[in-house]
Amino acid sequence: INDLPSGLSWSLLGQFGSLTMDIDGALRDPLELDGLQSNLAIAGDNLNLVARWLGVHSLPAERFKFEGRINREGQQLQLRGVELKLGEARLLVNATAPYFPDMRDLQLNASLDGPSFAPFREMLGLQGEVDVPFELDMAINAQPDALAILNSSLQFEGSRLTVSGPLGDQPGFVGSELRLEFEGDNLADLLAEIGVKDGPALPFQGDGLVRTTSPNKLQITESRLALSGLLIQLSGEVNDLATLDDNELWISMNTPSLGNSLRQFGQRGLPQLPASVDARLHGPLATPTIDGLEIQLGDARLDVEGAIQVFPTLSIVEAKLRGEVPGPVAWLP
To answer: In 3D, which of 40, 38, 18 has the Cα closest to residue 28?
Structure first.
């Protein structure tokens, strides 16, 4: 540490077991932490161990290398060339916060890529293997007196997800309104990576709009998934993001040919007729109760008034059935 006419400078070289540090910099005003210019390079065999020293417990136990430059002049804070290598994955960040610690007018660009998403699975709370190459790009641009605008893109396993729109305020980013667009070559592969087995091996495409109305509540509107001639639309509210146990969702499925669409799911011999299903799902996402069920097949119609539980086994809680067949039905046995 050297005492300068205006501030001080420092240089630190150290090794603690497998952890190495090389830090240097200068500080014009030590009392206000102003006029800061610092270069950091830290590397080790276990990021989880180092993070626990700092009170963070969710980072993976991977070898790592962190380096970058931090500048502060007045309220402006800059991160330049900040790079974290985690195993074979790499995170790169450049950011400017003109009014730090206020995040007004924040400009942030980040990219994350690697041969495997596995190191981040536990950190993000994902199930399944999630062990595929990936690329993530993200930009946040905060406008004066307005919400920050997020633009991000994630690609992996022949699939692509883009998310864009204004971000709400912390905590919970309440007030966010994000447009999602997604497409891929094989829905079965994508679902398997997040722990859902036996999905259909079909190309897919969809989009949707989600809003955060409280720190733990999500509203879904204008959500669509196109799959083998089948159009699935979803709207409603997820009232507990932590457990997914309190949901009010409306689902609609339409196809111009029931036989053609379900043949892709292994179901054969069904009539080549237009079909639609509308229903309300409520309760836990894993074991929902269905009511307000309406099924249309050609000119035939079936309404189910009451509640049906499908998972883990089919059970009718209370239901009344009303059918309508305007004429002879050639496809009935």
So the answer is: 38
Q: Which residues contact 328 (CB under 8 A, 6 or more apart)?
A: none
Supply the pLDDT for residue 125. 57
Number of helical (H) and strand (E) elements in the chain, helices listed first = 4, 20
Could you tell me which residues come within 8 angstroms of residue 119 by beta carbon, excluding any fewer than 6 positions away? 60, 62, 86, 87, 89
For 161, the token pair is 């997800």
Contact 98, 39 (CB under 8 A): no
Comparing CA positions, the residue from 31, 58, 59, 29 lying closest to residue 44 is 59
> How many whole angstroms separate alpha carbon 53 and alpha carbon 19?
13
Mean pLDDT throughout 288-316?
Answer: 76
- pLDDT for the residue 331: 53
| DSSP assignment string, 217-267 | EEEEEEEEEEETTEEEEEEEEES-TTT---EEEEEEEEES-HHHHHHTTT-
The rounded distance, in Å, linking the Cα atoms of 216 and 233 is 23
Least confident of 162-166, 274-278, 286-290: 286-290
Query: How far apart, in whole angstroms, are the C-alpha atoms of residue 98 and residue 48?
Result: 31
For the segment 32-56, what is each residue's pLDDT rounded down to a tens digit?
Answer: 778 899 999 999 999 888 888 878 7
**Bridge partners for 136 per DSSP:** 112, 154
The predicted structure's pLDDT at residue 285: 73
- Give, in order, the Cα–Cα distances in Å from 141 to each of 104, 109, 173, 333: 9, 9, 15, 61
